[in-house]
Amino acid sequence: MQAYELASAWTEASKASSFGRFKKADLKPLITDQIVVFLEKLEVDRALSVEAVKAMDDVYGLSTAGNAELSWRFFQVSAGGKGSRHETATLADTSASFVNRLPSAPVLRTPRRPPPG
Q1: What phi and psi, each to the nearest 5 degrees, are found at residue 52?
Q2: Is the dihedral of CA 87, 99, 44, 27 positive or negative?
Q3: How confident is the model at residue 75 (pLDDT cuts 50, 70, 90)?
Q4: Cβ–Cβ contacts within 10 Å for residue 14, how many?
C-alpha cells in the first residue's frame, strides 16, 4: 500500500471507527519521504477523528518515532484531529512534548488546553 492509499484507508477507517486492519508493517515498504507524504495528506484532509489519530499512534508509534520530521508531521496531524478540543489538545501536547525533546527540534507550543468536558 502506497502513501495515498494508506491515507485513504485511514480516512475510511476513521469514519467507521474500525482500526483493526492496520499493522506496523504497513509502513515497512515506505521510505521516509513516502511516510511524510502519507502524513501530509492526512493533515491537509483533516478527516481523522482523535480516536483514529490515537489508534494510528498505537499502531505506528509516530509520536515517538525518533525521527524529527515524522514526529513533527504526526504532531500536525494530531493537532487537526476531529474531536473535542480537550482530546485534540491532549494529543497535540503529547506529540509536541516528544518533538521538543529531539535534538535540534523546533520549540512547539500547543494552544491552551480547554477545561475537560
Answers
A1: -65, -40
A2: negative
A3: confident
A4: 23
Which cell goes with 4?
495515498
User: Of 73, 71, 11, nearest to 37 (Cα)?
Assistant: 73
Alpha-helix residue ranges (DSSP H) falling in 1-117: 3-16, 32-45, 50-60, 68-79, 85-101
Pair 70, 39: CB distance under 8 Å: yes
Output DSSP code: residue 83: S
Whether the pTM exceeds 0.85: the reply is no
Output phi, psi for 23, to 5 deg.
Answer: -135, 155
**What confidence tens digit (pLDDT) does each residue in 24-36 have?**
999 999 999 999 9
Give the C-alpha separation, 8 to 82, whole Å.
16
Region of residue 67 (phi > 0: left; psi between -120 and 50: alpha; otherwise: beta): beta
Reading the block at residue 58, the C-alpha cell is 498505537
Using alpha carbons only, what angle is made at residue 94 by residues 96 and 60, rounded to the nearest 5 degrees?
100
